[in-house]
From TrEMBL:
Subunit architecture: Part of the 50S ribosomal subunit.
The organism of origin for this protein: Thermocrinis ruber
Protein name per its UniProtKB record: Large ribosomal subunit protein uL24
An example Gene Ontology molecular-function term: structural constituent of ribosome
Gene: rplX
One GO process term, biological-process aspect: translation
Coiled-coil annotated spans: none
């Protein structure tokens, strides 16, 4: 299945304790259907010290959020939107684009194939 949300996309959180926050996707965990969003969903982890390797203490980092709880913010219209895919024939090449379902504009090129 093609990725509807990619690294570098701007997303808004739609559900959970971080609802309404916007951030950039840092990492996509495809097997777990989760994304890590910059400055969203911080958790604290208590870590024991390992001599010569790391210091102990309380570390704070961004935890993954389920992909169904975020929506892509369209770079053209600036609204949270669902993402669709569109195949466009241009000469002898077939191009697959992600597009905004609200305004209909192409977001970016996903794949390009040359027809034989």
């Amino acid at each position: 299945m093609a990725a509807k949300i990619k690294k570098g996309d701007t997303v808004v959180v739609m559900r959970g304790k971080e609802k309404g926050k916007t951030g950039e996707v840092i990492k996509v965990l495809r097997k777990e259907n989760r994304v890590v969003v910059k400055n969203v969903n911080f958790v604290k982890k208590h870590v024991k010290a390992i001599p010569g390797v790391r210091e102990g203490g309380i570390y704070e980092f961004e935890a993954p959020i389920h992909i169904s709880n975020v929506m892509l913010v369209c770079p053209k219209c600036g609204k949270p939107t669902r993402v669709g895919f569109r195949m466009v024939q241009e000469g002898d090449t077939l191009r697959k684009y992600r597009f905004c379902k609200k305004c209909g504009e192409n977001i970016d090129l996903v794949r390009e194939r040359v027809k034989k």
